[in-house]
């Protein structure tokens, strides 16, 4: 297959720059503690300075992989499939989710919402970033809103974003890992004063698992 043919398939979403795939425990948000198969797709131009997977940003570093292979691997391990990145919505997710659902699998996505929502999802975790805000069409589809708290100013940003999601969306505040000791007390205080919010922690890091 020529480079041009590969790029054409990537543009269609029939191949994706696969960074890694692994079976583990979901560590964050509503489904924390449940077994899930993660598909991490390369490519992201959001550029969060505290990102803990910066190696995912450059899609060219990750081999274009056919979605049939990705789906076959996923189906061996779990009913719940989490597509993350990078920013997975950089790519067309429709072919991947169609193939996953054909296997009877549940599709979850973790996204900043910086690009239009493609694909068919059973659960959308929206995690907006100040440097590249979500497109308006993503907000109504969010099942959970996960706001990363790096400093005190992020609480106001969290409230701004919460005003844009549906009333049924579950609201989470999660400390940025390197700042957790400083920010957890502030998050706890904020949630106690604003109980519609919940605390999310990266429990997989406490458990020392991927």
From TrEMBL:
Q: Where are the transmembrane segments?
A: none
Tell me the InterPro entries matching this sequence.
7-CO-7-deazaguanine_synth-like (IPR024924), Aldolase_TIM (IPR013785), rSAM (IPR007197), rSAM_sf (IPR058240)
Q: GO biological process annotations for this chain's record?
A: tRNA queuosine(34) biosynthetic process
Binding residue positions for S-adenosyl-L-methionine: 50-52, 86, 127-129
Q: Which pathway is it part of? A: Purine metabolism; 7-cyano-7-deazaguanine biosynthesis
Locate the residues binding [4Fe-4S] cluster: 44, 48, 51
E.C. numbers: 4.3.99.3
Signal peptide region = none
Q: Which residues bind substrate?
A: 25-27, 40, 84, 210
Q: Which cofactor does the UniProt annotation name?
A: Mg(2+); S-adenosyl-L-methionine; [4Fe-4S] cluster
- Tell me the superkingdom of the source: Bacteria
Q: What are the entry keywords?
A: 4Fe-4S, Iron, Iron-sulfur, Lyase, Magnesium, Metal-binding, Queuosine biosynthesis, S-adenosyl-L-methionine
Can you state the subunit structure given in the record? Homodimer.
Function comment: Catalyzes the complex heterocyclic radical-mediated conversion of 6-carboxy-5,6,7,8-tetrahydropterin (CPH4) to 7-carboxy-7-deazaguanine (CDG), a step common to the biosynthetic pathways of all 7-deazapurine-containing compounds.
Name assigned to this protein: 7-carboxy-7-deazaguanine synthase
């Amino acid at each position: 297959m020529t480079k041009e043919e590969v790029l054409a398939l990537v543009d269609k979403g029939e191949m994706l720059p696969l960074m890694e795939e692994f079976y583990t425990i979901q560590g964050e948000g509503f489904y924390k503690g449940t077994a899930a198969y993660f598909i991490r797709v390369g490519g992201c131009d959001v550029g969060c300075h505290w990102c803990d997977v910066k190696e995912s940003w450059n899609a060219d570093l990750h081999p274009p992989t056919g979605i049939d292979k990705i789906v076959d691997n996923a189906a061996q391990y779990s009913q719940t499939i989490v597509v993350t990145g990078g920013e997975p919505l950089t790519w067309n997710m429709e072919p991947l989710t169609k193939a996953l659902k054909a296997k009877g699998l549940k599709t979850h996505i973790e996204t900043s919402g910086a690009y239009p929502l493609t694909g068919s999802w059973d659960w959308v975790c929206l995690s907006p970033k100040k440097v590249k805000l979500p497109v308006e069409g993503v907000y109504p589809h969010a099942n959970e809103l996960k706001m990363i708290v790096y400093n005190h100013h992020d609480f106001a940003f969290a409230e701004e974003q919460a005003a844009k999601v549906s009333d049924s969306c579950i609201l989470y505040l999660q400390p940025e890992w390197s700042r957790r000791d400083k920010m957890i007390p502030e998050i706890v205080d904020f949630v106690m004063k604003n109980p519609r919010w919940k605390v999310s922690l990266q429990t997989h890091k406490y458990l020392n698992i991927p």
